[in-house]
Amino acid sequence: MEGQEGSQQPQLILAHKLFLLTHPDVQDIEKVHLREEVLASVKSHDMAPLYESLAADSVLELDQGLLDSMKAKIDEDLKKLDEKIADAEENLGESEVREAHLAKSLFYIRISDKEKALEQLKVTEGKTVAVGQKMDLVFYTLQLGFFYMDFDLISKSIDKAKSLFEEGGDWERKNRLKVYEGLYCMSTRNFKKAASLFLDSISTFTTYELFPYDIFIFYTVLTSIISLDRVSLKQKVVDAPEILTVIGKIPYLSEFLNSLYECQYKSFFSAFAGLTEQVKLDRYLQPHFRYYMREVRTVVYSQFLESYKSVTMEAMATAFGVTVDFIDLELSRFIAAGKLHCKIDKVAGVLETNRPDAKNALYQATIKQGDFLLNRIQKLSRVIDL
């Protein structure tokens, strides 16, 4: 699973294709091509365990002859790897023994045998002394976790990596870990932390095994828009030279970011519609598609209303290039959910903002928490004789 700088891991490319194969919005003709590409990848890497599971799920058709030939090839390769390990243990030094065990770990990762790969990585770790090399083993585990979207494995591996860094470790690996952790946070809907970690890694990005740099910028912009205030967005994203060099290559992204900052709401909604397809077809973002769409709309509506004490719904609808009925329905949902601080005067067709000041918000929060605490005490008093 070791990749050269600038190239994404073949297993993660395969994982994305498998995701698209099961996506309802991907056209059937495209799925035919994807199925062919997936089968070609499975054959070239002898992924017998993955092939069996895909055949069981009816993603691929089972060819028993192909499966048997892959298993025979795996047995042959494993025999050679075991011979190398035995030879290294008998005739060579500790570093050669470690390298032989690492080769077996990478072989299990290549053929997508998750359980054996994790077992062999533990064995390899037992033969490893240097902190940097132990960190590399954690990165292999993380890549395996992202292939299977095993968030428990990813979370434990990130914690393990952080504890290893307390013993030492170079900056390059620390910066790489930030991207891995950022991707984990984004995949588990912690967009604020993901944005912070991605922005810290912009100028030091070397994690090409996860995704290309333009995809990294795509994730950075998307997470930043719903996480940063207007001033921070300008400083860290809109004017960031690293982002400016790449953002034009990603369809709709430049217009999406700049129209939001420049308050060009018609252009924003147009770019927003174009980006939805990209978000929907991303295996890390797709589970949070509806949530993300809501959060973006909350940001843009809040930004528009911040400039007014009151504004007609017709003026707002015109600014966004939509109908009054659409704005009425949209805002009523966000107001009811407590996302927007305003009220709708349906008779006059006016929106009146009622943003609470900081002291009032703190007072309300204290009252709410106090009520919660009293309720808990009352429940406990029924059980415990005070």
Could you characterize the architecture of this molecule?
There is one protein chain. Helix 8 (151-167) packs antiparallel against helix 9. Residues 1-5 have low confidence and may be disordered. This protein is globular. Helices cover 71% and strands 3% of the residues. Strands 1-3-2 form a three-stranded antiparallel β-sheet. The protein has helices at 10-21, 28-44, 48-56, 64-91, 94-110, 114-126, 131-148, 151-167, 171-187, 191-201, 213-225, 230-238, 241-244, 253-261, 265-280, 289-305, 313-320, 324-336, 358-383; strands spanning 310-312, 342-345, 350-353. By secondary structure, it is mainly α.
User: Mean of the pLDDT scores?
Assistant: 86
Strand content: under 5%
Report the count of strand segments: 3
Q: What's the Cα radius of gyration?
A: 26 Å
Order of neighbouring strands in the sheet with most strands: 1-3-2
Classification by helices and strands: mainly alpha
How widely separated are the two ends? 61 Å
In helices, the fraction of residues equals over 70%
